[in-house]
Automatic annotation (TrEMBL):
GO terms for molecular function: glutaminase activity; pyridoxal 5'-phosphate synthase (glutamine hydrolysing) activity. Catalyzes the hydrolysis of glutamine to glutamate and ammonia as part of the biosynthesis of pyridoxal 5'-phosphate. The resulting ammonia molecule is channeled to the active site of PdxS. It comes from Tepidiforma thermophila (strain KCTC 52669 / CGMCC 1.13589 / G233). GO terms for biological process: L-glutamine catabolic process; pyridoxal phosphate biosynthetic process; pyridoxine metabolic process. This is Pyridoxal 5'-phosphate synthase subunit PdxT. It catalyses: L-glutamine + H2O = L-glutamate + NH4(+); aldehydo-D-ribose 5-phosphate + D-glyceraldehyde 3-phosphate + L-glutamine = pyridoxal 5'-phosphate + L-glutamate + phosphate + 3 H2O + H(+). The active site is at C79, H172, E174. In the presence of PdxS, forms a dodecamer of heterodimers. Only shows activity in the heterodimer. CDD domains: GATase1_PB. L-glutamine binds at G47, E48, S49, R106, I135, R136. SUPFAM superfamilies: Class I glutamine amidotransferase-like (SSF52317). The lineage of its organism: Bacteria, Bacillati, Chloroflexota, Tepidiformia, Tepidiformales.
Amino acid sequence: PRTVGVLALQGDFREHREMLEAMGHRAIEIRKPAQLEGIDALIIPGGESTTIARLILSNGFQQPLRDFCASGKPTWGTCAGAILLAQEVDRLDRPGIEVMAIRVRRNAFGRQVDSFEEEIAIDGIEGGPFRAVFIRAPVIERVDPPARAIARLEDGTVVAARQGNLLATSFHPELTHDPRLHAYFLAMGAPQGAAK
Ligand code: GLN
């Protein structure tokens, strides 16, 4: 089992914690930068990216989160979390963590489509399509190396990207009961051949 932190400033951190615990891992709600010391991997949940960005700054999390991402440990942003990992975002009134070479557009599906679900294929995920839940979701408009797109909607819109130990998804895998993407994420940090 791994010890996985879930940034718990705002948003749906509880659902990630429940998924991780159901998989047999230890999940820790991270509210203070010092808690980043003891974890093997970190999830930045969905929620409201402007609010989370504000709380990151006011709680002294910005540099510690950048350092965590640079440490090589798996770090995953879902929805608002993906917005915070992006180096470029339209309309975010303050800086996020800005570590992935992606450009993200917030609320990109428009107000008339607040939420929807689609079965998608994800590179590296076997066993059939993955049911992706989108809620006021961003799209990944541009992916520059070393980041690469790993999932698209039928129309080609990029909804997941990976850059080494960093993962960004526009959708919410913690809201379904499919643990495959959480397992993929945790394996991003596994040494070659190590037991998971
Ligand atoms: N619309 C939100 C934002 O821009 C993200 C929504 C979500 O995380 N489900 O921050």
